[in-house]
Amino acid sequence: MKTAVVILNWNGRKLLEEFLPSVVAYSEEATVYVADNASTDDSVMYVSTHFPSVKVIQNKKNGGYAAGYNEALQNLTEDIFVLLNSDVEVSPGWLKPMITAFAENLTLVAAQPKILDYKNKDYFEYAGAAGGYIDKLGYPYCRGRIFHTLEKDVGQYNDSADIFWASGACLFIRRNAFWEAGALDAHFFAHQEEIDLCWRLHAMGGHIKYIGTSHVFHLGGATLAVANPKKTFYNFRNTLLVLVKNVKGVQLWWLLFQRMMLDGVAAFQFLFQGKLHHFTAVFKAHLSFYRLLPIFLKKRKIHASNFKYYRIKSIVWRYFVQKKRTFPKGY
Prior knowledge:
Blueprint: E1 3-9, H1 13-25, E2 30-36, H2 43-50, E3 55-58, H3 64-73, E4 80-84, E5 88-90, H4 95-104, E6 108-117, E7 132-134, E8 140-142, E9 145-146, E10 149-150, E11 160-162, E12 170-174, H5 175-180, H6 193-203, E13 207-218, H7 229-246, H8 251-272, H9 276-303, H10 315-321
Parallel strand pairs: 1-2, 1-4, 2-3, 6-13
Antiparallel strand pairs: 4-12, 5-13, 6-12, 7-8, 9-10, 11-13
């Protein structure tokens, strides 16, 4: 089964210096690509000079994660795409369990490995951990990560499990399924586009899994740090867009009302914490959502499905009120 490991890069020379060597060293079964999103630094020259085995794809512009990968992948013919962040260190043998899972299960359309914190390797990393889910209001969470509570890895997730979404930090996906589902939605630009894609894959009847016998280490925040208000903007806006696009029926409007009320609470919490830029980012996110709403209502007519996407109704209630901070306890 032919595999393409594709690293999206934008002005990431330093990240490539630090993380590309492990990918090249431990990806013998795959072809490694660096897809450059119209960088203005010397990233491409660095890769060509120091890693001649790595193939460079030159995108025409910086379209963010979604459009960048859509452009980069359009001419690749490998059976499996691996969308790998440029700030991920892979481990020896990381590919074999993943590729084997796809070979043994033809209904498997997407998967992720265990994602650990590069800076604290005994703990799970925020963006994916041991596989993702969302609650009824669209809040994402993971085995190993609920909000900002990160579990220590003591082997509790060394298994294989069905999940709702696989992390875009290290996303394995069948080429045919990627294109049949409609690829990544470029309107998201960055953040939660993988949740939207996985939702469509489920609606098509595909299965998505976490494979705990493979692991990688993710730095996280290399493109947008947690403290960056742009990250707040994209997360709050894109959650609303995901719901509009994929939730079928009149229940959507009640869900959006509840979610917006909670967004308002979160915004004022930022304000009380002195995080003015994050406070305004939430409201900018809602304004952007309203501007995009007509476009997403059209998408909704195509993509909305009756697929039950949630395991629990409110992660906010269970985490903040019931104090259930780790995945096995009530999730």
